[in-house]
Design goal:
The protein is α+β, with helices and mostly antiparallel strands. It contains 13 helices and ten strands. Bound molecules: zinc ion.
Length: about 375
């Protein structure tokens, strides 16, 4: 998730705060403040607003604990998490790979709601120890804070147990379907289908409540539904991609027949004589007999046509030492992840000191299409 502020590291995991989180933090603080003001005006506005801010901060920490529990269990099962980002609708722990077995999926999924439930019960326990008794409205600031944190964390645990993939409950559902069907891809498809149905129900409920006069609350529910719908669709296709590319290596899809070009050639000659004629996609630029970089249609697009005769390939190429390289034996999924991180469409394939070819996103797409047409 881009456009987030880095807060630092915890257990070696980068913690980020997406800008949208500030909006929700403000909303929570405002609504807590006005809630306390209504029920206990005698506390005075200083205490009330300090309490609202403190409660919102503690809520932020409990959300972080929920995500951290996912990340730590994932780590114990051999999966690394680079970042945890908190945003308007909660948090995401970016676990680098999808779990490779159902047990890991189940454990990573269930520990989140469990953590929130434990935090919720402990908060209510503290409120109890401070003298609060169910069902009385808490009558001191501290009791009010712990009661609110207790209920919100129990609600969070319950919400996350909704079996809509990719919510935690959906992951748990997927792991169970995975065990019963022994087919990870079908389990994902079904869990994602349930996720989409639940998302649509959220949207319908939100619209219904909005027209029923619930105002912002209704829109909020619809928005959560819309978000879940996007997430279910995206994760289903990413899991299908991972499955489709399982065991496929860079050498299986790369373009190997590269054309070697001299770095002093101008762009016009390159376009006329090579790019438009050869039908090849891999053009390697050499300087002093050594491979120096790659040139693709993308680099040409950025250059105004009148300048073509006066610009050399060396001027516009992507230098090899600025690109990450992959080996022919690298899994294709890993190459795609590298392209995603670097925001490029192709990577040079290098073994030892030799350039074997390039791998492009188009290569991967073509491979998947061919496979699909052959019905595999
Ligand atoms: Zn979770």
């Amino acid at each position: 998730m881009r456009s987030s502020i880095r807060l630092g590291k915890l257990f070696g995991i980068e913690i980020g705060l997406h800008y949208s989180w500030f909006l929700i933090a403000l909303l929570i603080t405002m609504s807590l403040g006005s809630q306390f003001q209504e029920s206990h005006p005698e506390w005075g506005s200083n205490i009330i607003w300090a309490l609202a801010v403190l409660t919102a901060l503690l809520f932020f920490i409990t959300l972080l604990a929920h995500e951290m529990s996912h990340a730590l269990v994932a780590r114990a099962r051999g999966l690394t998490t680079k970042t945890i980002t908190l945003f308007a609708l909660g948090g995401v722990a970016q676990i680098e790979k999808e779990p490779e077995d159902a047990k890991t999926e189940f454990l990573v999924g269930i520990v989140g709601p469990l953590s929130s439930a434990v935090i919720g019960l402990v908060s209510l326990g503290i409120a109890w120890a401070l003298g609060w008794r169910i069902p009385a409205t808490p009558d001191t600031p501290l009791r009010a804070m712990f009661v609110w944190l207790g209920y919100i964390n129990l609600t969070l645990a319950a919400f996350n147990m909704i079996p809509g993939y990719p919510l935690d409950g959906g992951r748990i559902l997927r792991s169970i379907l995975w065990v019963t069907s022994r087919d990870a891809v079908r389990a994902t498809e079904r869990a994602a289908a349930v996720g989409k149905v639940i998302a649509l129900l959220f949207i319908a409920l939100g619209i219904f409540r909005f027209f029923g006069g619930a105002g912002f609350g209704g829109l909020w529910i619809a928005f959560i539904g819309w978000f879940l719908l996007q997430a279910a669709t995206a994760s289903a296709s990413s899991v299908a991609l991972t499955a489709g590319l399982k065991g496929v290596r860079v050498s299986d899809v790369m373009t190997a027949d590269c054309v070697m070009l001299d770095g002093n050639m101008n762009v016009e000659e390159f376009v006329e004589s090579y790019l438009l004629r050869s039908g090849k996609r891999c053009f390697v630029v050499q300087q002093n007999g050594e491979v120096a970089g790659l040139v693709t249609p993308h680099e040409i697009k950025g250059l105004e046509r009148p300048r073509w005769p006066y610009t050399t390939l060396s001027d516009i190429m992507r230098p090899l030492d600025q690109l990450h390289t992959v080996a022919p034996t690298t899994p294709v999924m890993e190459a795609l992840e590298t392209m995603g991180r670097d925001d490029v469409n192709q990577l040079p394939v290098v073994s030892g000191n030799h350039l074997d070819g390039i791998i492009t996103r188009a290569n991967v797409l073509q491979f998947l299409q061919t496979r699909a047409e052959l019905g595999r």
